[in-house]
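Handoff note, outgoing to incoming analyst
You'll be picking up this chain. Sequence as last confirmed:
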Amino acid sequence: MPTQIEAGKVRNGTYVMIDEEPCEVRSVSKSSPGKHGSAKAKIKAKEIFGGKNKHITKPVDSMMMSPDVENKVGQVVSKEGTIAQVMDMDTYETEEMELPEDLTISEGEEIEYKQIEDRKLFEGKRE
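Most recent structure output, in case you need it:
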């Protein structure tokens, strides 16, 4: 379940939602409070799934959503093109996942992936 985090407490490597898309924070800079306003946090992040850069400026005391990110291990049950059926090694549930085109992986090998809400992102082969 997503949690809330203050914009002023966001750090590099934190995951936040920007425009309804999960992003990893790349840099944060804060401005001092002025005569007529509060301090601001300027956040630069990169979309986890799309890879696009995102920039957002918010008051440091405003709340942002932080998605749940789980690191998981799965075993490739079957593969056809870039679509693979992957069995979660903890729950033994099988789901489909899209893999990179240039990946050479065979059935039975273990992979590492991230699960962010209902979406999955391939991280790499498990050594």
